[in-house]
Protein backbone atom coordinates (compact mmCIF):
# COMPACT_ATOMS: atom_id res chain seq x y z
CA UNK A 1 0.00 0.00 0.00
CA UNK A 2 1.08 3.51 -0.68
CA UNK A 3 0.99 6.46 1.60
CA UNK A 4 1.60 8.88 -1.26
CA UNK A 5 -0.76 11.84 -1.41
CA UNK A 6 -2.09 13.54 -4.52
CA UNK A 7 0.54 16.26 -4.03
CA UNK A 8 3.27 13.58 -3.90
CA UNK A 9 2.03 11.97 -7.11
CA UNK A 10 1.81 15.35 -8.84
CA UNK A 11 5.34 16.18 -7.72
CA UNK A 12 6.55 12.87 -9.16
CA UNK A 13 4.63 13.45 -12.37
CA UNK A 14 6.43 16.78 -12.84
CA UNK A 15 9.87 15.25 -12.35
CA UNK A 16 9.17 12.08 -14.36
CA UNK A 17 11.40 11.49 -17.36
CA UNK A 18 9.37 9.58 -19.93
CA UNK A 19 11.02 7.24 -22.45
CA UNK A 20 9.16 7.39 -25.75
CA UNK A 21 11.30 5.39 -28.18
CA UNK A 22 10.93 1.87 -29.52
CA UNK A 23 13.09 -0.91 -28.10
CA UNK A 24 14.94 -3.25 -30.46
CA UNK A 25 17.96 -5.47 -29.75
CA UNK A 26 18.34 -4.25 -26.20
CA UNK A 27 18.36 -0.55 -27.08
CA UNK A 28 15.96 2.35 -27.28
CA UNK A 29 15.76 3.55 -30.87
CA UNK A 30 13.73 6.00 -32.92
CA UNK A 31 11.36 4.66 -35.53
CA UNK A 32 13.19 4.02 -38.81
CA UNK A 33 11.13 6.69 -40.53
CA UNK A 34 11.62 9.12 -37.64
CA UNK A 35 7.86 9.52 -37.17
CA UNK A 36 6.24 10.20 -33.82
CA UNK A 37 2.73 10.65 -32.47
CA UNK A 38 1.49 12.81 -29.60
CA UNK A 39 0.79 11.04 -26.34
CA UNK A 40 -1.89 13.11 -24.57
CA UNK A 41 -3.05 12.53 -21.01
CA UNK A 42 -6.82 12.06 -20.70
CA UNK A 43 -6.57 13.45 -17.15
CA UNK A 44 -6.11 17.03 -18.34
CA UNK A 45 -5.23 16.92 -22.02
CA UNK A 46 -1.54 17.56 -21.34
CA UNK A 47 1.10 16.39 -23.85
CA UNK A 48 3.15 13.65 -22.17
CA UNK A 49 5.58 13.10 -25.01
CA UNK A 50 6.07 12.30 -28.65
CA UNK A 51 6.21 8.57 -29.02
CA UNK A 52 8.02 6.68 -31.79
CA UNK A 53 5.47 5.78 -34.45
CA UNK A 54 6.74 2.48 -35.76
CA UNK A 55 5.76 1.13 -39.16
CA UNK A 56 6.54 -1.72 -41.55
CA UNK A 57 10.31 -1.08 -41.63
CA UNK A 58 10.52 -1.26 -37.85
CA UNK A 59 8.52 -4.48 -37.83
CA UNK A 60 10.90 -6.00 -40.40
CA UNK A 61 13.89 -5.02 -38.33
CA UNK A 62 12.48 -6.25 -35.02
CA UNK A 63 11.27 -9.56 -36.45
CA UNK A 64 14.64 -10.26 -38.08
CA UNK A 65 16.40 -9.47 -34.84
CA UNK A 66 13.99 -11.53 -32.75
CA UNK A 67 14.46 -14.44 -35.15
CA UNK A 68 18.25 -14.19 -34.92
CA UNK A 69 18.06 -14.16 -31.12
CA UNK A 70 15.76 -17.19 -31.19
CA UNK A 71 17.97 -19.15 -33.58
CA UNK A 72 21.09 -18.34 -31.56
CA UNK A 73 19.63 -20.27 -28.62
CA UNK A 74 20.74 -17.57 -26.18
CA UNK A 75 17.27 -17.71 -24.60
CA UNK A 76 15.41 -20.49 -26.39
CA UNK A 77 17.98 -23.11 -25.37
CA UNK A 78 18.96 -21.62 -22.03
CA UNK A 79 18.70 -24.09 -19.16
CA UNK A 80 15.19 -23.81 -17.70
CA UNK A 81 16.51 -23.02 -14.22
CA UNK A 82 18.42 -20.03 -15.61
CA UNK A 83 15.52 -18.81 -17.70
CA UNK A 84 13.37 -19.03 -14.61
CA UNK A 85 15.77 -16.86 -12.64
CA UNK A 86 15.75 -14.14 -15.29
CA UNK A 87 11.95 -14.19 -15.43
CA UNK A 88 11.64 -13.91 -11.67
CA UNK A 89 14.15 -11.05 -11.63
CA UNK A 90 12.08 -9.33 -14.35
CA UNK A 91 8.86 -9.74 -12.34
CA UNK A 92 10.57 -8.49 -9.20
CA UNK A 93 11.93 -5.43 -11.04
CA UNK A 94 8.39 -4.59 -12.16
CA UNK A 95 7.30 -4.84 -8.52
CA UNK A 96 10.20 -2.63 -7.41
CA UNK A 97 9.26 0.00 -10.00
CA UNK A 98 5.54 -0.27 -9.31
CA UNK A 99 5.09 3.37 -8.24
CA UNK A 100 6.79 4.74 -11.36
CA UNK A 101 4.93 2.32 -13.63
CA UNK A 102 1.57 3.00 -11.97
CA UNK A 103 2.08 6.73 -12.40
CA UNK A 104 2.97 6.28 -16.09
CA UNK A 105 -0.09 4.15 -16.67
CA UNK A 106 -2.40 6.60 -14.90
CA UNK A 107 -1.07 9.59 -16.79
CA UNK A 108 -1.30 7.68 -20.05
CA UNK A 109 -4.79 6.16 -19.83
CA UNK A 110 -6.56 7.81 -16.91
CA UNK A 111 -7.21 5.05 -14.39
CA UNK A 112 -7.01 5.85 -10.65
CA UNK A 113 -3.38 5.61 -9.56
CA UNK A 114 -4.33 3.71 -6.41
CA UNK A 115 -5.82 0.96 -8.57
CA UNK A 116 -2.90 1.00 -11.01
CA UNK A 117 -0.51 0.53 -8.10
CA UNK A 118 -2.35 -2.04 -6.00
CA UNK A 119 -4.02 -4.05 -8.76
CA UNK A 120 -2.44 -3.67 -12.20
CA UNK A 121 1.22 -3.56 -11.18
CA UNK A 122 0.83 -6.29 -8.59
CA UNK A 123 -0.89 -8.55 -11.12
CA UNK A 124 1.68 -7.83 -13.84
CA UNK A 125 4.65 -8.60 -11.60
CA UNK A 126 2.92 -11.68 -10.27
CA UNK A 127 2.15 -13.03 -13.74
CA UNK A 128 5.78 -12.71 -14.86
CA UNK A 129 7.07 -14.35 -11.67
CA UNK A 130 4.40 -17.09 -11.74
CA UNK A 131 5.21 -17.95 -15.36
CA UNK A 132 8.93 -18.02 -14.57
CA UNK A 133 8.40 -20.21 -11.53
CA UNK A 134 6.23 -22.56 -13.58
CA UNK A 135 8.64 -23.13 -16.44
CA UNK A 136 10.95 -25.64 -14.76
CA UNK A 137 8.08 -27.63 -13.29
CA UNK A 138 6.52 -28.62 -16.58
CA UNK A 139 7.51 -32.09 -17.80
CA UNK A 140 7.15 -33.59 -21.26
CA UNK A 141 5.57 -37.00 -21.91
CA UNK A 142 6.60 -40.51 -22.85
CA UNK A 143 3.94 -42.20 -24.96
CA UNK A 144 2.55 -45.67 -24.07
CA UNK A 145 4.29 -47.32 -27.02
CA UNK A 146 4.94 -50.97 -27.96
CA UNK A 147 8.04 -52.51 -26.36
CA UNK A 148 10.36 -51.81 -29.32
CA UNK A 149 9.46 -48.12 -29.59
CA UNK A 150 10.12 -45.01 -27.55
CA UNK A 151 7.63 -42.23 -28.19
CA UNK A 152 8.53 -38.78 -26.89
CA UNK A 153 5.91 -36.07 -26.77
CA UNK A 154 7.69 -32.78 -26.27
CA UNK A 155 6.90 -29.08 -26.22
CA UNK A 156 9.17 -26.66 -28.08
CA UNK A 157 9.12 -22.88 -28.16
CA UNK A 158 7.47 -21.74 -31.35
CA UNK A 159 9.84 -18.94 -32.37
CA UNK A 160 8.87 -15.31 -32.85
CA UNK A 161 5.75 -14.16 -31.03
CA UNK A 162 4.05 -10.83 -31.77
CA UNK A 163 1.78 -9.58 -28.97
CA UNK A 164 -0.72 -6.82 -29.75
CA UNK A 165 -2.46 -5.44 -26.67
CA UNK A 166 -5.15 -2.87 -25.73
CA UNK A 167 -5.12 0.19 -23.50
CA UNK A 168 -7.48 -0.69 -20.64
CA UNK A 169 -5.00 -2.67 -18.51
CA UNK A 170 -1.87 -1.93 -20.53
CA UNK A 171 0.79 -3.65 -18.46
CA UNK A 172 -1.43 -6.39 -17.06
CA UNK A 173 -2.61 -7.49 -20.52
CA UNK A 174 1.01 -7.35 -21.73
CA UNK A 175 2.16 -9.52 -18.84
CA UNK A 176 -0.46 -12.18 -19.58
CA UNK A 177 1.27 -12.62 -22.96
CA UNK A 178 4.88 -11.93 -21.95
CA UNK A 179 4.86 -14.33 -19.00
CA UNK A 180 4.18 -17.60 -20.79
CA UNK A 181 5.68 -16.44 -24.12
CA UNK A 182 9.09 -15.61 -22.65
CA UNK A 183 9.00 -18.46 -20.14
CA UNK A 184 8.55 -20.91 -23.04
CA UNK A 185 11.75 -19.63 -24.66
CA UNK A 186 10.32 -17.52 -27.47
CA UNK A 187 11.44 -14.12 -28.73
CA UNK A 188 8.68 -11.53 -28.32
CA UNK A 189 7.70 -8.30 -30.03
CA UNK A 190 5.21 -6.32 -27.95
CA UNK A 191 2.98 -3.77 -29.73
CA UNK A 192 1.22 -1.67 -27.10
CA UNK A 193 -1.86 0.36 -27.94
CA UNK A 194 -1.17 3.81 -29.38
CA UNK A 195 -3.37 5.04 -26.53
CA UNK A 196 -1.16 3.61 -23.77
CA UNK A 197 2.41 2.87 -24.90
CA UNK A 198 4.41 4.18 -21.94
CA UNK A 199 4.66 1.28 -19.50
CA UNK A 200 5.45 -1.25 -22.22
CA UNK A 201 8.33 0.96 -23.35
CA UNK A 202 9.58 1.40 -19.79
CA UNK A 203 9.69 -2.30 -18.85
CA UNK A 204 11.92 -3.13 -21.83
CA UNK A 205 14.85 -1.66 -19.91
CA UNK A 206 13.85 -3.73 -16.87
CA UNK A 207 13.89 -6.90 -18.97
CA UNK A 208 17.50 -6.20 -19.97
CA UNK A 209 18.40 -5.43 -16.38
CA UNK A 210 16.87 -8.78 -15.42
CA UNK A 211 19.21 -10.55 -17.84
CA UNK A 212 16.84 -11.27 -20.71
CA UNK A 213 19.19 -11.18 -23.71
CA UNK A 214 19.08 -8.49 -26.41
CA UNK A 215 16.65 -9.31 -29.21
CA UNK A 216 14.47 -11.56 -27.07
CA UNK A 217 12.11 -8.79 -25.95
CA UNK A 218 11.29 -5.87 -28.25
CA UNK A 219 8.70 -3.12 -28.03
CA UNK A 220 7.24 -1.36 -31.07
CA UNK A 221 4.87 1.50 -30.24
CA UNK A 222 2.65 2.72 -33.05
CA UNK A 223 -0.73 2.41 -34.67
CA UNK A 224 -2.67 -0.72 -35.46
CA UNK A 225 -3.01 -0.03 -39.16
CA UNK A 226 0.76 0.55 -39.52
CA UNK A 227 3.05 -1.50 -37.30
CA UNK A 228 0.24 -3.73 -35.99
CA UNK A 229 -0.79 -4.78 -39.46
CA UNK A 230 2.84 -5.23 -40.55
CA UNK A 231 3.44 -7.67 -37.69
CA UNK A 232 0.22 -9.54 -38.42
CA UNK A 233 1.14 -9.92 -42.11
CA UNK A 234 4.83 -10.70 -41.50
CA UNK A 235 5.95 -14.03 -42.98
CA UNK A 236 8.38 -14.71 -40.15
CA UNK A 237 6.14 -14.18 -37.12
CA UNK A 238 5.14 -17.64 -35.88
CA UNK A 239 2.43 -16.72 -33.41
CA UNK A 240 0.24 -13.66 -33.02
CA UNK A 241 -1.40 -13.13 -29.64
CA UNK A 242 -3.93 -10.38 -29.23
CA UNK A 243 -6.18 -8.72 -26.71
CA UNK A 244 -8.57 -6.10 -28.06
CA UNK A 245 -11.83 -5.68 -29.90
CA UNK A 246 -13.67 -8.41 -31.77
CA UNK A 247 -13.59 -6.30 -34.94
CA UNK A 248 -9.79 -6.20 -35.04
CA UNK A 249 -9.55 -9.81 -33.85
CA UNK A 250 -11.41 -10.92 -36.98
CA UNK A 251 -9.12 -8.81 -39.12
CA UNK A 252 -6.06 -10.51 -37.63
CA UNK A 253 -7.39 -13.94 -38.63
CA UNK A 254 -7.62 -12.67 -42.19
CA UNK A 255 -4.05 -11.34 -42.08
CA UNK A 256 -2.81 -14.71 -40.85
CA UNK A 257 -4.61 -16.46 -43.69
CA UNK A 258 -3.21 -14.01 -46.19
CA UNK A 259 0.36 -14.49 -44.98
CA UNK A 260 2.03 -17.48 -43.34
CA UNK A 261 -0.87 -19.06 -41.43
CA UNK A 262 0.74 -17.92 -38.21
CA UNK A 263 -1.12 -19.15 -35.14
CA UNK A 264 -3.57 -16.53 -33.92
CA UNK A 265 -4.88 -16.40 -30.35
CA UNK A 266 -7.48 -13.80 -29.54
CA UNK A 267 -8.93 -12.29 -26.38
CA UNK A 268 -11.70 -10.04 -27.59
CA UNK A 269 -14.78 -8.17 -26.43
CA UNK A 270 -17.57 -9.01 -24.01
CA UNK A 271 -21.10 -8.15 -22.93
CA UNK A 272 -21.25 -10.15 -19.77
CA UNK A 273 -24.47 -10.96 -17.89
CA UNK A 274 -24.62 -10.59 -14.13
CA UNK A 275 -27.72 -12.56 -13.05
CA UNK A 276 -29.26 -11.65 -9.68
CA UNK A 277 -31.94 -14.09 -8.54
CA UNK A 278 -34.48 -13.30 -5.82
CA UNK A 279 -32.85 -15.96 -3.62
CA UNK A 280 -29.39 -14.34 -3.71
CA UNK A 281 -27.70 -14.89 -0.34
CA UNK A 282 -26.89 -11.21 0.20
CA UNK A 283 -28.58 -8.58 -1.95
CA UNK A 284 -26.45 -5.80 -0.47
CA UNK A 285 -23.27 -7.59 -1.53
CA UNK A 286 -24.81 -8.26 -4.95
CA UNK A 287 -25.68 -4.57 -5.39
CA UNK A 288 -22.18 -3.46 -4.47
CA UNK A 289 -20.64 -6.03 -6.81
CA UNK A 290 -22.99 -4.98 -9.64
CA UNK A 291 -21.88 -1.36 -9.21
CA UNK A 292 -18.20 -2.29 -9.13
CA UNK A 293 -18.66 -4.56 -12.16
CA UNK A 294 -19.61 -1.58 -14.33
CA UNK A 295 -17.75 1.32 -12.68
CA UNK A 296 -14.34 -0.16 -11.90
CA UNK A 297 -11.69 1.00 -14.40
CA UNK A 298 -14.31 3.43 -15.82
CA UNK A 299 -16.18 0.43 -17.20
CA UNK A 300 -13.26 -0.14 -19.58
CA UNK A 301 -13.10 -3.82 -18.69
CA UNK A 302 -13.58 -6.72 -21.09
CA UNK A 303 -15.48 -8.61 -18.38
CA UNK A 304 -17.55 -5.61 -17.27
CA UNK A 305 -20.91 -6.79 -15.94
CA UNK A 306 -22.65 -4.57 -18.45
CA UNK A 307 -25.94 -6.49 -18.54
CA UNK A 308 -27.49 -6.74 -15.09
CA UNK A 309 -30.26 -9.36 -15.22
CA UNK A 310 -32.59 -8.92 -12.23
CA UNK A 311 -35.45 -11.23 -11.23
CA UNK A 312 -38.62 -9.19 -11.68
CA UNK A 313 -39.92 -9.84 -8.15
CA UNK A 314 -36.97 -7.91 -6.63
CA UNK A 315 -36.44 -5.35 -9.39
CA UNK A 316 -38.11 -2.41 -7.60
CA UNK A 317 -36.18 -3.18 -4.42
CA UNK A 318 -32.81 -4.10 -5.90
CA UNK A 319 -32.23 -1.52 -8.64
CA UNK A 320 -32.28 1.43 -6.16
CA UNK A 321 -29.67 -0.45 -4.12
CA UNK A 322 -27.39 -0.54 -7.18
CA UNK A 323 -28.04 3.18 -7.83
CA UNK A 324 -27.07 3.87 -4.21
CA UNK A 325 -23.94 1.72 -4.50
CA UNK A 326 -22.89 3.62 -7.64
CA UNK A 327 -22.69 6.84 -5.58
CA UNK A 328 -19.36 5.69 -4.15
CA UNK A 329 -18.05 5.48 -7.73
CA UNK A 330 -17.73 9.22 -8.43
CA UNK A 331 -15.25 10.34 -11.06
CA UNK A 332 -12.32 12.22 -9.57
CA UNK A 333 -8.71 13.18 -10.22
CA UNK A 334 -6.84 9.94 -10.95
CA UNK A 335 -3.81 11.03 -8.88
CA UNK A 336 -5.96 11.48 -5.76
CA UNK A 337 -5.49 8.19 -3.88
CA UNK A 338 -9.16 8.13 -2.83
CA UNK A 339 -10.47 8.34 -6.41
CA UNK A 340 -12.45 5.29 -7.54
CA UNK A 341 -13.25 6.32 -11.14
CA UNK A 342 -10.75 8.14 -13.34
CA UNK A 343 -10.79 9.55 -16.86
CA UNK A 344 -11.84 7.68 -19.98
CA UNK A 345 -8.93 6.87 -22.25
CA UNK A 346 -9.42 9.73 -24.73
CA UNK A 347 -11.85 12.18 -26.31
CA UNK A 348 -12.82 9.81 -29.12
CA UNK A 349 -13.85 7.16 -26.60
CA UNK A 350 -15.77 9.78 -24.60
CA UNK A 351 -17.81 10.58 -27.72
CA UNK A 352 -18.50 6.89 -28.26
CA UNK A 353 -19.71 6.34 -24.67
CA UNK A 354 -21.91 9.45 -24.77
CA UNK A 355 -23.33 8.18 -28.06
CA UNK A 356 -24.42 4.94 -26.37
CA UNK A 357 -26.05 6.90 -23.54
CA UNK A 358 -28.02 8.87 -26.14
CA UNK A 359 -28.96 5.60 -27.87
CA UNK A 360 -30.28 4.18 -24.60
CA UNK A 361 -32.50 7.20 -24.10
CA UNK A 362 -33.66 7.14 -27.73
CA UNK A 363 -34.60 3.45 -27.50
CA UNK A 364 -36.78 4.09 -24.43
CA UNK A 365 -34.68 2.72 -21.58
CA UNK A 366 -35.16 4.52 -18.23
CA UNK A 367 -32.15 6.53 -17.08
CA UNK A 368 -31.91 6.04 -13.29
CA UNK A 369 -28.56 7.75 -12.64
CA UNK A 370 -25.57 9.34 -14.36
CA UNK A 371 -25.66 10.03 -18.07
CA UNK A 372 -23.38 13.05 -18.22
CA UNK A 373 -19.85 14.13 -18.87
CA UNK A 374 -18.36 15.69 -15.70
CA UNK A 375 -15.22 17.57 -14.57
CA UNK A 376 -15.00 19.21 -17.99
CA UNK A 377 -13.11 22.19 -16.51
CA UNK A 378 -10.17 19.83 -15.84
CA UNK A 379 -9.51 19.55 -19.56
CA UNK A 380 -9.90 15.80 -19.12
CA UNK A 381 -12.59 13.32 -20.22
CA UNK A 382 -14.80 11.98 -17.42
CA UNK A 383 -18.25 10.34 -17.46
CA UNK A 384 -20.53 9.54 -14.52
CA UNK A 385 -21.42 5.90 -13.92
CA UNK A 386 -24.79 5.51 -15.65
CA UNK A 387 -27.65 3.06 -15.08
CA UNK A 388 -30.49 2.31 -17.48
CA UNK A 389 -33.45 0.30 -16.18
CA UNK A 390 -36.13 -1.40 -18.23
CA UNK A 391 -33.72 -2.47 -20.94
CA UNK A 392 -34.69 -5.08 -23.51
CA UNK A 393 -31.96 -7.44 -24.73
CA UNK A 394 -32.55 -6.34 -28.32
CA UNK A 395 -31.58 -2.71 -27.61
CA UNK A 396 -28.24 -1.42 -28.85
CA UNK A 397 -27.04 -0.80 -25.26
CA UNK A 398 -27.72 -4.48 -24.47
CA UNK A 399 -26.05 -5.88 -27.57
CA UNK A 400 -22.93 -3.81 -28.21
CA UNK A 401 -19.86 -3.53 -26.04
CA UNK A 402 -19.81 0.07 -24.75
CA UNK A 403 -16.55 -0.28 -22.80
CA UNK A 404 -17.60 2.55 -20.50
CA UNK A 405 -19.53 2.92 -17.22
CA UNK A 406 -23.00 2.31 -18.67
CA UNK A 407 -25.13 -0.43 -17.08
CA UNK A 408 -28.22 -1.98 -18.71
CA UNK A 409 -30.74 -3.58 -16.31
CA UNK A 410 -32.84 -6.33 -17.91
CA UNK A 411 -35.64 -8.01 -15.91
CA UNK A 412 -36.38 -11.75 -16.06
CA UNK A 413 -39.07 -14.05 -14.63
CA UNK A 414 -37.24 -17.34 -14.03
CA UNK A 415 -33.71 -18.74 -14.33
CA UNK A 416 -34.41 -20.38 -17.72
CA UNK A 417 -35.33 -16.99 -19.16
CA UNK A 418 -32.26 -15.42 -17.52
CA UNK A 419 -29.95 -18.02 -19.07
CA UNK A 420 -31.58 -17.58 -22.46
CA UNK A 421 -31.04 -13.80 -22.31
CA UNK A 422 -27.48 -14.21 -20.99
CA UNK A 423 -26.55 -16.53 -23.87
CA UNK A 424 -28.31 -14.38 -26.47
CA UNK A 425 -25.18 -12.40 -27.31
CA UNK A 426 -22.39 -12.75 -29.87
CA UNK A 427 -19.99 -12.63 -26.92
CA UNK A 428 -19.15 -15.26 -24.31
CA UNK A 429 -16.45 -13.93 -22.03
CA UNK A 430 -17.92 -14.12 -18.52
CA UNK A 431 -21.13 -14.36 -16.50
CA UNK A 432 -22.20 -14.36 -12.87
CA UNK A 433 -25.14 -15.83 -10.96
CA UNK A 434 -26.31 -14.85 -7.50
CA UNK A 435 -28.41 -17.53 -5.78
CA UNK A 436 -28.36 -19.59 -2.57
CA UNK A 437 -29.70 -22.63 -4.42
CA UNK A 438 -26.72 -24.92 -5.01
CA UNK A 439 -28.33 -26.90 -7.84
CA UNK A 440 -29.52 -23.77 -9.61
CA UNK A 441 -26.01 -22.33 -9.36
CA UNK A 442 -24.35 -25.43 -10.84
CA UNK A 443 -26.94 -25.91 -13.58
CA UNK A 444 -26.63 -22.25 -14.55
CA UNK A 445 -22.82 -22.47 -14.57
CA UNK A 446 -23.04 -25.40 -17.01
CA UNK A 447 -25.58 -23.67 -19.23
CA UNK A 448 -23.77 -20.35 -19.54
CA UNK A 449 -21.73 -20.10 -22.75
CA UNK A 450 -18.85 -18.15 -21.22
CA UNK A 451 -15.18 -18.70 -20.41
CA UNK A 452 -15.53 -17.61 -16.78
CA UNK A 453 -18.56 -18.07 -14.52
CA UNK A 454 -18.78 -16.54 -11.07
CA UNK A 455 -21.21 -17.63 -8.37
CA UNK A 456 -22.14 -15.12 -5.67
CA UNK A 457 -19.28 -12.83 -6.66
CA UNK A 458 -18.10 -10.88 -9.69
CA UNK A 459 -14.63 -10.95 -11.27
CA UNK A 460 -13.07 -13.76 -9.26
CA UNK A 461 -9.83 -15.37 -10.42
CA UNK A 462 -6.05 -15.41 -10.19
CA UNK A 463 -3.08 -16.91 -12.02
CA UNK A 464 -4.18 -20.47 -11.26
CA UNK A 465 -7.21 -20.51 -13.58
CA UNK A 466 -7.41 -19.93 -17.35
CA UNK A 467 -9.05 -16.79 -18.70
CA UNK A 468 -10.62 -16.27 -22.11
CA UNK A 469 -13.76 -16.39 -24.14
CA UNK A 470 -16.35 -18.51 -25.91
CA UNK A 471 -17.91 -17.42 -29.22
CA UNK A 472 -16.80 -14.02 -30.52
CA UNK A 473 -14.99 -13.23 -27.27
CA UNK A 474 -12.03 -15.13 -28.65
CA UNK A 475 -10.05 -18.37 -28.57
CA UNK A 476 -7.23 -19.74 -26.45
CA UNK A 477 -6.67 -18.85 -22.84
CA UNK A 478 -4.41 -16.51 -20.89
CA UNK A 479 -3.12 -17.34 -17.39
CA UNK A 480 -2.57 -20.74 -15.76
CA UNK A 481 -0.48 -23.52 -17.35
CA UNK A 482 -3.04 -23.70 -20.18
CA UNK A 483 -1.61 -20.42 -21.51
CA UNK A 484 1.67 -22.19 -22.32
CA UNK A 485 -0.11 -24.15 -25.06
CA UNK A 486 -0.23 -21.01 -27.21
CA UNK A 487 3.52 -20.49 -27.11
CA UNK A 488 4.75 -24.00 -27.85
CA UNK A 489 4.55 -26.55 -30.63
CA UNK A 490 3.87 -30.17 -29.78
CA UNK A 491 6.32 -32.67 -31.26
CA UNK A 492 6.13 -36.46 -31.46
CA UNK A 493 9.50 -38.23 -31.74
CA UNK A 494 9.46 -42.00 -32.48
CA UNK A 495 12.58 -43.99 -31.70
CA UNK A 496 12.88 -47.60 -32.90
CA UNK A 497 14.63 -49.57 -30.22
P1 LIG B 1 -8.60 -2.45 -30.48
O1 LIG B 1 -9.02 -3.73 -31.08
O2 LIG B 1 -9.02 -1.20 -31.08
O3 LIG B 1 -7.01 -2.37 -30.40
C1 LIG B 1 -6.26 -3.39 -29.77
C2 LIG B 1 -4.86 -3.37 -30.35
O4 LIG B 1 -4.92 -3.74 -31.72
C3 LIG B 1 -4.16 -2.02 -30.29
O5 LIG B 1 -2.81 -2.21 -29.96
C4 LIG B 1 -4.31 -1.53 -31.71
O6 LIG B 1 -3.31 -0.62 -32.09
C5 LIG B 1 -4.20 -2.81 -32.50
N1 LIG B 1 -4.77 -2.76 -33.86
C6 LIG B 1 -5.81 -1.99 -34.29
N2 LIG B 1 -6.01 -2.20 -35.61
C7 LIG B 1 -5.11 -3.12 -36.01
C8 LIG B 1 -4.81 -3.74 -37.26
N3 LIG B 1 -5.50 -3.46 -38.37
N4 LIG B 1 -3.81 -4.63 -37.30
C9 LIG B 1 -3.10 -4.95 -36.21
N5 LIG B 1 -3.32 -4.38 -35.00
C10 LIG B 1 -4.32 -3.48 -34.90
O7 LIG B 1 -9.06 -2.54 -28.95
P2 LIG B 1 -8.88 -1.44 -27.81
O8 LIG B 1 -9.85 -0.35 -28.04
O9 LIG B 1 -7.45 -1.11 -27.65
O10 LIG B 1 -9.28 -2.28 -26.53
C11 LIG B 1 -10.60 -2.47 -26.14
C12 LIG B 1 -11.07 -3.85 -26.52
O11 LIG B 1 -10.24 -4.83 -25.92
C13 LIG B 1 -12.45 -4.16 -26.03
O12 LIG B 1 -13.21 -4.77 -27.05
C14 LIG B 1 -12.23 -5.14 -24.90
O13 LIG B 1 -13.30 -6.00 -24.62
C15 LIG B 1 -11.04 -5.87 -25.36
N6 LIG B 1 -10.37 -6.52 -24.24
C16 LIG B 1 -10.47 -7.88 -24.14
C17 LIG B 1 -9.87 -8.54 -23.08
C18 LIG B 1 -9.95 -10.02 -22.95
O14 LIG B 1 -9.12 -10.58 -22.24
N7 LIG B 1 -10.87 -10.70 -23.59
C19 LIG B 1 -9.15 -7.81 -22.13
C20 LIG B 1 -9.08 -6.43 -22.27
C21 LIG B 1 -9.68 -5.80 -23.34
MN1 LIG C 1 -2.49 7.69 -23.60
TrEMBL record:
Aldehyde dehydrogenase domain residues: 30-492
Signal peptide boundaries: none
CDD domains, per the entry: ALDH_GABALDH-PuuC (cd07112)
Keyword list, A-Z: Oxidoreductase
Source taxonomy: Bacteria, Pseudomonadati, Pseudomonadota, Gammaproteobacteria, Pseudomonadales
Name listed for the protein in its UniProt record: 4-guanidinobutyraldehyde dehydrogenase / NAD-dependent aldehyde dehydrogenase
Entry keyword annotation includes Aminoacyl-tRNA synthetase: no
Residues annotated as catalytic: 267
Molecular-function annotations in GO: aldehyde dehydrogenase [NAD(P)+] activity
